[in-house]
Amino acid sequence: MDGQSSEMQACIEACLSCYRTCLGMASRHCLEAGGRHVEPEHFRLMLSCAEACRASAQLMLIGSAVHRHQCAACAEICAACARSCEEIGDMDECVAACRACEAACRKMTA
Fold first, then answer.
1. Which residue, among 67, 62, 50, has the nearest Cα to 15 in the 3D structure?
2. Do 89 and 38 touch, CB atoms closer than 8 A?
3. Going by C-beta distance under 8 Å and a sequence separation of 6 or more, which residues neighbour residue 41?
4. Planar angle of CA 98, 7, 82, nearest 5 degrees
5. Closest by alpha carbon to 98, among 24, 46, 29?
6. What are the backbone dihedrals phi and psi of residue 66, each rounded to the nearest 5 degrees, phi first?
7. What is the pLDDT along the chain (110 residues), one digit of tens a residue?
8. For position 58, what pLDDT does the model report?
9. What is the pLDDT of residue 3?
10. Nearest to 15 by CA among 60, 69, 57, 77
11. pLDDT on residue 104
12. Other C-beta atoms lying within 10 Å of the C-beta of residue 96
């Protein structure tokens, strides 16, 4: 990707991976598991995380100068989503994706 540092490319990939993971797990795993997995606060957080990750990737891809602000928000949302998924249990894939995206986004804000 022209004009993007390897750190930014890694962040874009981490964001897109987290987007796919959170949206996929929310729509497949959580809806099918039911119970605590579909409690409104948790479910909305997963959808919010997916959208924050998608928006961060998009802003970096288009070269927007405000991507740092979005990445800062994304890191916070990913951290909250990872905690929620860990607390619910049986969501290791989502926890890992959120933590990886959080770390990558924090590097973008430095």
1. 50
2. no
3. 84
4. 10
5. 46
6. -85, 5
7. 456 799 999 999 999 999 999 999 999 999 999 999 999 999 999 999 999 999 999 999 999 999 999 999 999 999 999 999 999 999 999 999 999 999 999 999 98
8. 98
9. 64
10. 57
11. 98
12. 15
- Residue 4's Cβ-count burial label (10 Å; 0-12, 13-18, 19+) is middle
DSSP the chain: -TT--HHHHHHHHHHHHHHHHHHHIIIIIIHHH-GGGG-HHHHHHHHHHHHHHHHHHHHHHTT-TTHHHHHHHHHHHHHHHHHHHHHH-S-HHHHHHHHHHHHHHHHHH-
Token pair, residue 61, equals 């891809």
Is the whole-model pTM more than 0.70? yes
Instruction: Work out the number of other CB atoms within 10 angstroms of the CB of residue 40.
Output: 7
Residue 102 one-letter amino acid = E
Instruction: Tell me the torsion sign for CA atoms 1, 10, 24, 64.
Output: negative
Which tokens in the block code for residue 27?
């729509």
Structure token digits, residue 87 = 């607390």
